[in-house]
Each structure stands twice: as structure tokens, then as C-alpha cells.
Write a structure and sequence with these properties.
alpha/beta; Arc Repressor Mutant, subunit A; D-Maltodextrin-Binding Protein, domain 2; 5-stranded mixed β-sheet; 11 helices
């Protein structure tokens, strides 16, 4: 391939396939057909005399040459996109794109209806996708534009992302209104003796509860361990289990009538729920609009 005839759009194909690990997913992301992506990859392979990708157990795996090209091209394209976006007028009422937000399962339950109502009003042609992702790669996903923003209690992201506080939250205990031993209030002794359900979600900062209890020398009787909060209402309402969770979601669960929330008899610090984004995306008008809308909606909680 002659250098003066090299198509710079091919670079976007390489970056998209590298990030998606799939020709099909890359084509969807780029808004082109799968054969177009395959054709572009063929031209790139000829240009660089390298296969670029090989098939692996979980998708396409980049070669060493491809990884080096990706590092170069992704930074270059990000700079180009940022400079162009900064000079374009962004109209949410006409924009057609997917909003990708990362949040936990309780965030999904509590925040999604509010955000969807707002987006439907001011950005009717946009699609909302909620993702639960590993905290280990969220900052990278934000930097590369795989996701647009992250909402939650994630103090581990403070050093690698930009963020703003949406609201402060605290923990309460959720239990059945028919609990055999605990009624209108709960003592520390009752809390320790109770059977607990523990949610060990990899996407949250809620490990602070266990850390505080350990410092106070309290060892809970864990009867059930779960990866998600959403099953708690049915589980707790029909048992003597006690769950410790954020007050807003506890209030939502308690509104069904067969559950109620009580203060935790151990002083657990409040925490901050934030919206996070990456500095690399700050000049993008869409990103600025999105963060502003999320902040506007969720700060009212």
C-alpha cells in the first residue's frame, strides 16, 4: 500500500477491533458492515505485514505489533476527536448515539428510571445502556470511551478519574416487620446475634461495613452471601435475616410494606455517591452534557 494513499479511517478500525475483541462488535460500534471491517483489516495486515489479530478463546487477540499500533493510534485518534468535538455544536435533542453508564445493581434499580425519564425528555433519540463492570478496568474503559460515565461509591477511582459528589449516603439495617426478635429498635447485642445476609459485590465500596465492624470487634453471623442486592426484599421479608445497605435503597424496599429499616447500632461512616468521568473526555461536548444531566437529576435525591 502506498503511503500517500493510506486511508486514515483504517486506524479507527484497528482501534475498534482491539477494544471490542470482535469484528462484529467493532462494526456495530463504527456503524458499518462486518465485511467492511474485515476488508479494512485485510488492508491493514498487508500494510504492516502482520496478522494483527489471532483467534483466542474469548475473541480476537492482538499481536505484539497490533498492541504497539493500538497504543499509538488510540492516543492520536482521541486527540483528533477531542479537538473536533470541542468545535462542534452538540444538540442532545437531535443526537443519535448510545449512552453507556456503569453502576451497581442497586444503582441500576434506583438511578435508571430517573435518568431514563430525563434522557427521554431532552435526548429522545439516544439509547441508554447500563453496564456492570469490574472496577479493575473502569478507569481504562472511561479513558478509551468504552463507557461514558460511572456512578457509585467507588473511592478507588478518585485518583484516576475526575468526579463530582451527587449526594451523601449512610447505612441502615433492613429486616422483616415480623422479625421474631427485633422490632422498633436494635441493640448492638441483637445486631451481633442476628443472622445476616451479606452482599459481596465486586462493584462497590461497601466493604467499608466489614472494615468498621472488624475494628469494633464485631463478627456477624453470615447466613447467606450474595453477589447482588436486588434479591434482598423477598429474602429478608420472609425470614429472620438482617441486611445492611444504603438508606435510600432500603427505603425503596421498605415501601412495599413488609420490611422496615432501623439504624445500624454501630457507627459506620457515611459515604459519597459520585459521578466519575475521565479527564481525557472533558473537552467532549457530549461528555460535558452527560455529566451535567446526571448531576442535575441525581443531586435532587
Amino acid at each position: 500500500m502506498e503511503k500517500d494513499r493510506f486511508d486514515l479511517n483504517l486506524l479507527r478500525v484497528l482501534v475498534a477491533v482491539h477494544e471490542a475483541s470482535s469484528v462484529t462488535a467493532a462494526a456495530e460500534r463504527l456503524g458499518v458492515t462486518q465485511p467492511s471491517v474485515s476488508y479494512a483489516l485485510g488492508k491493514l495486515r498487508c500494510a504492516y505485514a502482520d496478522p494483527l489479530f489471532v483467534r483466542g478463546a474469548s475473541g480476537l487477540v492482538p499481536t505484539a505489533v497490533c498492541t504497539e499500533l493500538y497504543r499509538l493510534f488510540s492516543d492520536m485518534l482521541a486527540n483528533v476527536d477531542t479537538s473536533l468535538s470541542a468545535r462542534r455544536d452538540f444538540d442532545p435533542g437531535r443526537a443519535q448515539r448510545r449512552i453507556r453508564l456503569v453502576m451497581s445493581d442497586i444503582g441500576e434499580l434506583y438511578f435508571t428510571p430517573l435518568l431514563l425519564a430525563r434522557f427521554s425528555e431532552v435526548a429522545p433519540h439516544m439509547e441508554l445502556e447500563v453496564i456492570q463492570a469490574s472496577t479493575e478496568r473502569i478507569d481504562e474503559d472511561l479513558a478509551l470511551g468504552r463507557v461514558d460515565a460511572v456512578i457509585g461509591n467507588l473511592p478507588q477511582l478518585l485518583e484516576s478519574t475526575r468526579s463530582t459528589v451527587l449526594f451523601k449516603e449512610h447505612y441502615v439495617c433492613l429486616l422483616s416487620v415480623k422479625h421474631p426478635d427485633i422490632h422498633e429498635e436494635m441493640t448492638c447485642e441483637q445486631f451481633t446475634a442476628a443472622r445476616h445476609v451479606m452482599v459481596a459485590s465486586p462493584f462497590s465500596g461497601h466493604s467499608v461495613v466489614e472494615n468498621v465492624l472488624t475494628r469494633h470487634g464485631i463478627v456477624r453471623r453470615i447466613a447467606v452471601r450474595l453477589p447482588h442486592f436486588t434479591v434482598l426484599p423477598e429474602l429478608v421479608a420472609n425470614s429472620d435475616l438482617v441486611a445492611t445497605l444504603p438508606s435510600r435503597i432500603a427505603a425503596l424496599y421498605a415501601s412495599r410494606g413488609d420490611l422496615h429499616a432501623l439504624p445500624v447500632p454501630v457507627p459506620i461512616p457515611a459515604f459519597q455517591v459520585r459521578v466519575h468521568w475521565h479527564a481525557r473526555q472533558e473537552a467532549n461536548p457530549f461528555n460535558a452534557w452527560l455529566v451535567a444531566e446526571i448531576t442535575k437529576v441525581l443531586r435532587l435525591l
